[in-house]
C-alpha cells in the first residue's frame, strides 16, 4: 500500500510496524521489499520524504550543505529527494568490490571491512536482480574467448590485473518498484513523509515522527528502525540524534561519526600508444554492456600497500604522435605490425579513508528543525601516489611485453590535486567496524550504543575501492533484511 501524506484525504493515523525503514532509494526499497517477502507475518513501514515527482525548491533546500575549504562541485546534484532516491540520476555502472578492497592496508590508521568478500558474495546475485543485470559474472576471462582482439595479452607475470564493470539499464527504483510496493500486503509506504524526530529511551529508539511539509504528521512505533537516507543524510540524522541526547551514558558516542567522508574521483594522467581496437571502455557483449578495466594485480596491492585504482582507455586522435617521434612501429619493436592508436587514460582513484575529511553540524536548522551540515572534503594526499604509480606500471608492462608505450601528460601537481571533483558517491561517514572503538556501526549494521537502530547506506563502507557503490549497497541491504528477519528467513539462494 502507498499512502501520500500530501493527499489531505489520506490521513493514515499513527503507525505501528515491526521494522520501519526510512528512505526509499535503492537501499530502502530493496530492504523493505526483501523484509516484507521474508516475513509475511510482519508489518513493514517504508517512509520517504519525496513523492513520485521531482522535489520542489523548498524540498531541495532541506538538503542544503555548506562546503568548507576544497569545493565539492557535485554537492547539489548528487542527491535526489523522491521515491527511488538518487537512482533517478544514477548511470548504472555496477561492480562488486575487489577482494583486496575488504583488506586493511597496513599503512592506514583504520581497519577495513570486518569480513571478507565471501560474506557479501551470496547477496550479489540478489543485487544484480534488483538492478536488472543478467548473469552473475564479473571476470574478464569469459570475455577473452569472445573478444581476444579487444584485450591486452599481458601474461601471467603481469603486475596489472583486469576487472569487469557491468551496467544496469539503469533501473530507476521509484518507477520500477512502485507497483511492487503498492501490491505488497504487509508493507505500507508513506510518501512526502519527512523524518524529523527520533525518540530515544536508554539505548532504544522508541519512536519516530514524520510529516509532510504542509503539516500532516504521523507518529511511528516500531521494534527496529533502519536509516536508508543516503550517505550524507543518514550521517546528519545520527549527528542530530547524538546532539539531542541527554548525557546519561547511553547513545551514540563514536568519534568516527561524520569523519572519513570520501567520494571517488578521476584523473587523466596521460596517453598510451598500443594496438588498434582495444576496448577498455564500455562495449556491447552478448551478455549486455560490459567494461573491462586495468588495475594493479592483487599481489602488487598487498605487497606495496597501493590504493586500488582502475584505468579505462579511450581512443583519441593525437597530433603530437608518440609513434612518429619514435620513427614508426618498427623502430619501437612492436609485436604484430598493424595500426597503432593513441588512447587517453582515464582513472578512477580509490580514496584513502581520511579522518580529516568531515561532515559536521552547523547551528543553522532546516525547516524540519534539524541542524544542517558543513562538508570539509579532503581527499588524502597519498591517493595520487598510487594513481601515478599505476600509470607508470602500465607503461612498464607495455614496454616489457612490446605491446605499446605510455606518456605522462599531466604530471602530479597541486593544481591537479585541487581540481578533482567527485562522482556523487557518499562514503565512509558511518563506518562499519568489528569493535566500537573503530566505527559507528557493527558488522550487522546496528549503530553502536543503540539496541534497535540500523544503517543501510554506502556511509558504512570502511574501505572504498574504485567500484561505484550501489551494487554493494543493495547486497548489504539484502543481507540486513535476512539478519532482521531472523534465522532462516530470506536466506540467499
Ligand atoms: C549523477 C549520478 C550518477 C551516479 N551513477 C552511479 C553509477 O553509475 N553507479 C553507482 O553504483 N552509483 C551511481 N550513483 C550513486 C547512486 O545513485 C547511489 O549510490 C544510490 O542512489 C544510493 O542509494 P541509497 O538508497 O543509499 O540513497 P538514495 O538513493 O540517496 O536514497 C535516499 C532516500 O532517502 C530519502 N530521504 C532523505 N531524507 C529523508 C527524510 N528526512 N525522511 C524520509 N526520507 C528521506 C530521499 O528522498 C531518498 O529517496 C550516481 C549518483 C549520481 C547523482
Automatic annotation (TrEMBL):
Coiled coil: none annotated. Residues 353-477 form the Glucose-methanol-choline oxidoreductase C-terminal domain. Its cofactor is FAD. Pfam families: GMC_oxred_C. Keywords: FAD, Flavoprotein, Oxidoreductase. One of its GO terms (molecular function) is oxidoreductase activity, acting on CH-OH group of donors. InterPro entries: FAD/NAD-bd_sf (IPR036188), GMC_OxRtase_C (IPR007867), P2Ox-like (IPR051473). Belongs to the GMC oxidoreductase family. This is GMC family oxidoreductase. It comes from Kineobactrum salinum.
